[in-house]
Amino acid sequence: MFILDRKLPLWLLSYIFIHLIHTTTLAQPDFLSYFCESAANYTIDSTYQRNLNTTLSTLPTTNNGLGFYNLTIGQGNDTVNSIALCRGDINLEMCRSCVNDSIIKLPQLCPNQKEAIGYYDNCVVKYSNEVILRNTRIKFYVYLANPQNATDIDQFNGALGPLLKDLRGNASAGGPLQKFASGSTSGPAFSTIYGLVQCTPDLSEIQCSDCLEAM
């Protein structure tokens, strides 16, 4: 708990607030990956920036109950579209923390770009001046490879293919609140292969399936 004494001098109060803001900024972990779209920029104190600030501060209140957030604010060229998606197997507290970190970190890394996306292990956050919902066009891919090699590539791929096919079908059929599936199967040399797939729930079943298959 932090309590302010009204008798503190103004310069000390200013120092305390600056210190708190600076500490909060430093507390945000680095993204696994992020992307700033340089095709469209905004100027400082513009209507777009004000809409962006309002959008990001309000976005965490729009959770659909299963870790999907979306919000649009503004009109015309000053419209800001935003979404956040948490991994389907994490709890609400972890989800909320990840989204809060993202909405602070991303504008710092992309200070003038109208479109940006940031990836943490537990969530992804994106904002743009373009429509996001039900849009399957992907501008930026992230690949994170496991450095370990399979002992038998053919057996590994033979087990992985059916697992991903089942997960893709289960996730795609997930409904309008969540499109998520995870599972495992036996791999070569008594190993276990784990899989996890997820789409934003605004996508149709066909859109989700096609997107995951293309991955």
From TrEMBL:
<dbReference type="InterPro" id="IPR038408">
    <property type="entry name" value="GNK2_sf"/>
</dbReference>
<feature type="domain" description="Gnk2-homologous">
    <location>
        <begin position="30"/>
        <end position="132"/>
    </location>
</feature>
<keyword id="KW-0677">Repeat</keyword>
<dbReference type="InterPro" id="IPR002902">
    <property type="entry name" value="GNK2"/>
</dbReference>
<protein>
    <submittedName>
        <fullName>Gnk2-like domain-containing protein</fullName>
    </submittedName>
</protein>
<feature type="domain" description="Gnk2-homologous">
    <location>
        <begin position="138"/>
        <end position="215"/>
    </location>
</feature>
<dbReference type="Pfam" id="PF01657">
    <property type="entry name" value="Stress-antifung"/>
</dbReference>
<keyword id="KW-0732">Signal</keyword>
<feature type="signal peptide">
    <location>
        <begin position="1"/>
        <end position="27"/>
    </location>
</feature>
